[in-house]
Design a protein that fits this description.
The complex is a heterodimer. By secondary structure, chain A is α/β, with parallel strands linked by helices. Chain A has a single domain, classed as Rossmann fold (3-Layer(aba) Sandwich), CATH 3.40.50. Chain A has helices spanning 23-35, 49-52, 72-85, 99-104, 107-116, 161-166, 181-194, 209-212, 219-228, 255-259, 270-300, and strands at 39-43, 64-66, 92-98, 121-126, 172-177, 200-205, 235-238, 242-245. An eight-stranded mixed beta sheet of chain A has the order 2-1-3-4-6-5-7-8, sandwiched between helices. In chain A, helix 1 (23-35) packs across helix 7. By secondary structure, chain B is an alpha/beta fold. Chain B folds into two domains: 2-246, Rossmann fold (3-Layer(aba) Sandwich), CATH 3.40.50; 253-383, Rossmann fold (3-Layer(aba) Sandwich), CATH 3.40.50.920. Chain B has helices at 8-18, 33-45, 58-70, 81-86, 88-96, 121-125, 139-153, 183-189, 214-246, 271-284, 302-307, 330-341, 362-373; strands at 2-7, 23-26, 51-54, 75-76, 102-107, 132-135, 162-167, 175-180, 207-208, 253-256, 263-267, 289-294, 296-298, 314-319, 348-352, 382-383. In chain B, helix 1 (8-18) packs parallel to helix 7, helix 3 runs parallel beside helix 5 (88-96) and helix 7 packs across helix 9. The radius of gyration of chain B is 21 Å and the shape is globular. The termini of chain B are far apart. Classes of the chains: A alpha/beta, B alpha/beta. The interface between A and B is large, with 46 and 41 residues. Strand 2 of chain A pairs parallel with strand 9 of chain B.
């Protein structure tokens, strides 16, 4: 057994090879802080693989395996099954994948694990494109955004991943943001508790200065702007039906305030911008409606 | 040891049950489905103490097996045809992580066109993924080779996953009286599984399968290659130990009437039984022919195979698949390579037979033997027992 010699506090090394201002790095530090060392992590080849490490080096103090791009949930399910068979069901199994590895190529294996009720925590950090391979568009890339495969702006709206996950009726799912660390931490705590019953899912907004084109110092600020413009909504989905908005946005700012600082939206035209704003308004109205229905169901019960 | 009427699929499932696999991940596909079904029954009624993960694809079946085996559990899955093809990416992962997973493969043709029936194109397409491949001739072989496979694959000098291949329908759905050993005897033969290399363990944290630089990749591939170099002697030993424990002998190659043969047909799998029947008929007419059955295609038992061919014998290979664009089918290509590598100069006639569920009929075998006995050699691979309309069947191109 190797003796680990470094002064790192926590389970993630200081000094990792993520880009300056990486939203994911903030997220993983919080996630592992809550999950603790009694955790096994599954990571696909992606930005998160920077935490798997390279050659003889890793950045993590916990056991982990790098799987393939499309099977984070499947390998996590296998690890979980192996542990349960050996009576080690108290060990947390965590999958950490990006939006491409989750909403695109990994959707099938994720759906399989959620439907089976495998007791894993699956975290999708969403930087809204295939960043590690060079900023190619994913199904989670927002409308109007430039990527290297949507050079004239993405013409269609993004996939609603939370709604897809919610359709599986799992014990706990939540969207979160690295702009709201306390909220994120609380949700990881709840997700960790939920995996005693079944799968838990977190969808974390993780701004990417390299891919989005903004000053790395503004990552947290931009994440907050995404929420205050309702471009990214913070809510929980309990048992697939109960919706709880954890950050109500009463004084909404126009989407433009969030989009303008980002180079990826430079070429967006007025028509697309109007479509983006309309979609944002519809999504939030729907979310409030669902949250209201949840309250009514609660009081009825 | 009791004798039970078992179809090949059930013989495989019995072997997996007796090997005490702890995690099953299975996805149904014709003709493998009965394995997925019966293992769910065994885990449901307690005959097998295992977690049954009802996966949504073969890719996930292998991914779950890999994840579970990394925690130190013997796992089980099985597949066929396009299922094996979908699993392809993960086959290399299991092999590279040195996880000795044993997987029955029920051989079925690959698309296109669609076929539900047997040929070896599926497992042959996966032959370079770093898995051992053993081919069963009958249902007893299926059970025996699975048990032998666990023993050989899990050897610390090997750590290579293994496919136990059985011909779809010809074996998977054909009943045969099969000796099923007692749990105690199998427990004596197969100790509980222990992770001997990479593992996921809270008490000994390691990060498995991260990116590695070009300065290390070749060396790690060489470790796999060395595992394969060790595999053949370990497999031989495992087969001898199996014989001591259970009384049935197995060998990586099985020569039948080869010692004085003037013509030999090399074969894999269930068609070997038909070839041996024809050998008997030819021998009754005083014609000296033989059959050389390859049980272990990977590792390829090159020296034993060449040694089993008497000098001067004419040799043909019956391939149940084709390596398109290559001189012949994959088995023939390997036999030619082995002959050359052993310093011999023998021309090996390639034959393709029995694709997409076609029976390897006596007419195919006799035409192959007769060509060899007559000294006919054609450098082009010969497709046997084909219809006359081969080149007009479903040809919709405009006439030029």
């Amino acid at each position: 057994m190797l003796t680990i010699k470094d002064p790192t506090k926590g389970l993630v090394a200081h000094g990792v090879s993520t880009c300056a201002g990486c939203g994911l790095e903030l997220a993983i530090r919080v996630i592992l802080d809550v999950m603790g060392e009694n955790t096994i992590i599954v990571i696909p080849p992606s930005c998160s693989a920077l935490f798997s490490g390279f050659g003889n080096e890793t950045t993590l103090r916990i056991p982990g395996v790098q799987g393939n791009l499309e099977n984070t949930a499947a390998i996590a399910a296998g690890v979980r099954a192996g542990l349960e068979y050996q009576g080690k069901g108290d060990i947390n199994v965590l999958g950490l994948a990006g939006d491409g590895g989750t909403a695109d190529i990994g959707l099938q294996s994720l759906s399989g694990a959620l439907e089976r009720g495998d007791k894993i925590l699956y975290v999708c950090y969403d930087n809204e494109a295939y960043m590690n391979t060079g900023i190619q568009g994913s199904s989670s890339t927002p409308m109007g955004a430039w990527t290297t495969t949507t050079p004239y702006g993405k013409p269609v709206k993004r996939k609603n991943l939370m709604q897809i996950v919610g359709a599986h009726g799992i014990p706990y799912a939540a969207s979160a943001s690295i702009g709201y660390i306390d909220d994120l931490r609380k949700k990881v705590v709840k997700a960790k508790a939920a995996i005693a019953e079944g799968p838990a899912f977190l969808h974390i907004h993780a701004p990417c200065p390299t891919g989005w084109g903004y000053d790395p110092a503004l990552t947290v600020e931009l994440a907050k702007l995404a929420v205050s413009t309702r471009c990214w909504n913070l809510f929980e989905l309990v048992d697939g039906s109960k919706v709880n908005i954890t950050k109500k946005v009463n004084k909404v700012k126009p989407a433009e305030e969030y989009l303008t600082p980002q180079k990826r939206f430079t070429g967006i035209d007025a028509t697309t911008l109007a479509m983006v704003q309309t979609q944002i308004d519809k999504d939030y109205a729907r979310l409030e409606l669902l949250a209201g229905l949840s309250c009514e169901t609660d009081s009825a019960a | 040891m009791k004798k039970v009427m078992l179809e090949g699929n059930f013989a495989a499932a019995e072997a997996m049950r007796l090997a005490r696999i702890g995690v099953v991940s299975a996805y149904p596909i014709t003709p493998q489905s009965p394995i997925a079904e019966v293992l769910s029954e065994y885990t449901g009624d307690g005959r097998l103490d295992a977690k049954y993960i009802r996966v949504e694809s073969e890719h996930t079946a292998m991914s779950v097996a890999i994840g579970a085996q990394l925690t130190g559990v013997r796992t089980g899955t099985a597949t066929s045809s396009v299922g094996l093809a979908l699993m392809f990416e993960m086959l290399g992962v299991a092999a590279g992580l040195r996880l000795p997973i044993v997987m029955p493969v029920v051989n079925r043709a690959l698309v296109s066109p669609w076929s539900l029936w047997c040929d070896h194109q599926d497992s042959m397409a996966a032959r370079d993924t770093g898995w051992m491949q053993l081919y069963a001739e009958d249902c007893q072989d299926v059970l025996d080779l699975c048990l032998i496979a666990y023993r050989a694959a899990e050897n610390g000098d090997v750590l290579v996953p293994t496919m136990v291949c059985m011909d779809g329908f010809f074996l998977s759905h054909m009943s045969q009286a099969v000796y099923v050993p007692s749990q105690q005897d199998v427990d004596d033969f197969l100790p509980p599984y222990q992770a001997k290399n990479l593992k996921l363990d809270i008490a000994d944290p390691m990060f498995v399968n991260n990116l590695i630089p070009p300065t290390e990749f070749m060396e790690m591939r060489y470790q796999q290659h060395t595992g394969f170099s060790n595999a053949l002697p370990v497999l031989n030993t495992a087969m001898k130990e199996f014989e001591t424990q259970f009384g049935r002998s197995h060998s990586p190659i099985e020569p039948y009437c080869c010692d004085d043969a003037e013509a030999i047909l090399i074969s894999l799998g269930s068609m070997s039984g038909s070839v041996k029947e024809m050998v008997d008929q030819y021998r009754a007419q005083g014609k000296k022919v033989g059959n050389l059955k390859i049980v272990s295609f990977r590792p390829f038992p090159e020296e034993d195979l060449v040694a089993a061919i008497p000098r001067g014998a004419r040799v043909g290979v019956l391939d149940r698949s084709m390596s398109m664009g290559a001189p012949a089918g994959p088995v023939c290509n390997d036999v030619r390579s082995a002959i050359s590598n052993q310093g011999l100069n023998v021309r090996i006639q390639g034959f393709v037979v029995g694709l997409g569920g076609r029976d390897v009929r006596p007419v195919a075998i006799t035409s192959a033997f007769d060509r060899l006995l007559a000294g006919q050699y054609d450098k082009d691979v010969q497709w046997l027992d084909m219809s006359d309309n081969a080149m007009t069947l479903r040809q919709y191109r405009e006439a030029i």
